[in-house]
Amino acid sequence: MRFAKKSALLSLAAVTALAACGAEPQVQPADPTTKETTPPVAETKPAASAVDLLGPKPELPPSRPFTPPAVETFTTKNGLSVWLVEKHGLPLVSAVLVVRGGSSADPANQPGLMHITTDMLDEGAGKRSAVEVSSGINDLGATLALGTSADASVVSLTVLKNNFNAAFGIFSDVVARPHFDAKEWKRVSELWQNNLKKRSDEPMSVSRVINAAVLFGPDTPYGHPADGSLEAAAKLDLPTVKRFYTESFRPDRAVLVVAGDISRKEVTDIVDAQLGAWKAPPAKAAPKQADFPGPRAASARPKLVLVDRPGAPQSVIAVVRDGVAANDPTLPRLELINTALGGSFTSRLNMNLREEHHWAYGAGSTFQESRNKGGFWAIASVETPATGVALKEMLSELTKMAASGPTAEELEKAKAQDRADLMQTYETVSGTARRLATLARLGLSPSHDSEATRARQSATLTEVTALAKTHVDPASATVIVVGPRDAVGPQLATLSLGEPELWDPEGKPANAAAKPADKPAAKAADKPAPKKGK
User: Fold this and answer.
1) Which residues face 260 on adjacent strands?
2) Which label site among 126, 144, 334, 482 has the fewest CB atoms less than 10 Å from its CB?
3) Which residues, 6 or more positions from 487, have their beta carbon under 8 angstroms from its beta carbon?
4) Rounded CA gap, 308 and 227, in Å?
5) Sign for the pseudo-dihedral over CA of 248, 250, 252, 256
6) Closest listed residue to residue 363, CA positions, set 383, 334, 343
7) Cβ proximity of 179 and 110 under 8 Å
8) Contact (CB, 8 A) for 490 and 98
9) For the segment 217-239, what is each residue's pLDDT rounded down to a tens digit?
């Protein structure tokens, strides 16, 4: 009873307040289910539309393209090209040495030679042992990393400005004065082979190996894994590595990218002091450049490839076709198409396979950045029972994009992401150095990003739609599946792609007559050119 009275008083107060504001109260009838009369509840009549005191919503001006920082270029006394960006906001300096060639310079019968040669550089250099190189870098609070891709090998350094001279001394020893000690070779070579043996445990990585091998051919510069093969690794010896280092690591084939709190004079002085004696060997010692056949024609490739992973709970699906070279003038606009198709979280592929159907943690696509003509592929790791339907959806999304291109809204979103990504890339000292090193690796000019972003920002819907028709159509693509043959075989049969050609995890066509019960295939995987940091 006390609570009913209290409620009545509150309701009466509300009615009084409304009356004071000029609203006419409406009295509700008594509730027949209670012993007391339900207090009246006030309702207000719709008021006249209020005037927006803030005025109309302001229109934002058009976004301006971001312009990356200017790059100063010069050549040192020993013939080394230098790209310098002075950024004096923080006392940091990043340096990246880019040695052109990469795994594409491997002899045909020695895949992985550039990878293991680069990997040996910091295993003792100058007056330091392998342990002393590592501890010296750590004591200076620096980071030193090495890695090999298809087009170049890189050695990178980031450190506080106060410690740059000392850290660059170690960096220079690693680049120009490595030991190639036999004891360290034995250890590093064994680790390398053990890592190659583990590739079959990582299906997403092996899919990338198979993608390249199928698209270019297993024994071509772009078709073999950057970190080599088990067969080749077992045959490589230290004298071969030493000889290859002398031929490949030379200043006339390299670019030194420097960014941060440092001037041209400081860079010139330290390079002359630390790397002045590093000079190119006689011209006759230069390795013969390999031919670069582009992606194979669709007629020369199988339509469907399967790598068997018995019992795997997930399959990796990929649709692979030819792409373009990094210097192709259409690539900037193709990247806008890719952003809408599979290059962002809200892209069509990811929203379909992940958000709508929940078959995958993520799905994407990419136009390879490569010095010569590369590839394009869409890829995802999906639940094994959904392999067939997920692949059907992936092919459908590619077909729709090829038919009608991105929407106007998708194009504007891709342009906005281009601006944001470019600003983020050049926001830090290390990011600036890494991106310029990528441009050097691809044989592009230091001003490439400025020109490319202008091309993307000025792209029209008509232009990108026309490019989509010729560059993402899956009709000429190869479909590659890494998964359990017994489970995915019947699913693939419903897609009218023909009988799958069986390949092994090393990127070679397998014995098509072998069945899982007769000759189980290894699991599939491989990591692309792993990097090492200290």
Assistant:
1) 86, 93
2) 126
3) 384, 385, 387
4) 22
5) positive
6) 343
7) no
8) no
9) 998 999 999 999 999 999 999 99
